[in-house]
Amino acid sequence: AVHALRKACTRMTIVARDPVTAERFQYHNIPNTVQSADLSFLLEPAESIVLQQQVMDFIQESSSRNPLLIGINPHFLQVRTPEGKKRIIAALHEAVESIFLHYPNAHFVFLPNDNRRYQQAINSFEIVDQLLPLLPTEIQDRCSSILPKAGSSREIRRICSELDVCIAGSFHLAMTCLS
Questions:
Q1: pLDDT 10s digits, 73-124
Q2: Rounded distance, CA 166 to CA 71, Å?
Q3: In whole angstroms, what is the distance from residue 27 CA to residue 118 CA?
Q4: pLDDT for res 118
Q5: Could you tell me which residue, 137 or 10, shows the higher pLDDT?
Q6: What letter would DSSP give residue 132?
Q7: What pairs with residue 107 in β-bridges?
C-alpha cells in the first residue's frame, strides 16, 4: 500500500487532516503530503446568535434549572435502508429515555448537521423530526433542535460550547465540540 501511494502521489497531493497522519505519510516518504483542517474549527464561537436563536433561548431558559445539557448529533450515513432508519430512531429513542431516567435534570439539544440524502435514505434532520414525537411529553418539553440550512459555523460552535456533553454521530461535530 505504501509503494502504491508513493507512486500515485507523484501525480497528486495527499491532504491529511491531522499532524499525526501527515507525519505518517512523511515518515513513509510519500511525496506531496500536506496537512489541512476545516477552517471552521479555528473560528471563535459567535458572541450573539441570530439564525439559531431559539436554541440559545432554550439553553438560557434551561440554565435556570441547572440542567445537564446534552447534545445529540444523529448522522444519516448510519441509515442506508428503511430497516436501518427504524433501528437508528429506536436506538436514539431508547438512549434519550434512558438518559432522562438516570438524569432527570437532562435537557437535550439535537444537532443534526446534514440534510443530504444518501441513496434516498433519511437525513439527519428527518431523523430528529421523526424521533421527537415518539418521546414522552415531559422529555419533548426539554428538547430543542437546530434548524436546517440555518446558522453559521460560529453559531454552532457557540451552541456546542454551552453543552455539558455531546453524543456525536459525525466527525465534524465531534471536532467542533472538542475545539
A1: 887 766 667 787 888 899 999 999 999 999 999 999 998 876 666 555 677 8
A2: 4
A3: 36
A4: 59
A5: 137
A6: G
A7: 69
**Cα 145 to Cα 88: distance, rounded to the nearest angstrom:** 17
Instruction: Show the cell assigned to 87.
Output: 433501528
pLDDT in tens, 137-168: 999 999 998 877 666 777 888 888 889 999 88
Buried b (16+ CB within 10 A) or exposed e, 101-120: eeeeebbbbbbbbbeeeeee
Beta bridge partners of 157: none
pLDDT, mean over the chain:
79
Single out the residue of 122, 124, 116, 176 nearest to residue 152, CA to CA.
176
CA distance 15 to 37: 9
Who contacts 105 (Cβ-Cβ below 8 Å, separation ≥6)? 65, 66, 67, 68
7: Cβ contacts below 8 Å, ≥ 6 apart: none
Output DSSP code: residue 12. S
DSSP percent split of the chain into helix, strand, coil, nearest 5: 50, 15, 35
Dig out the grid coordinates for 178 from the structure.
Answer: 472538542
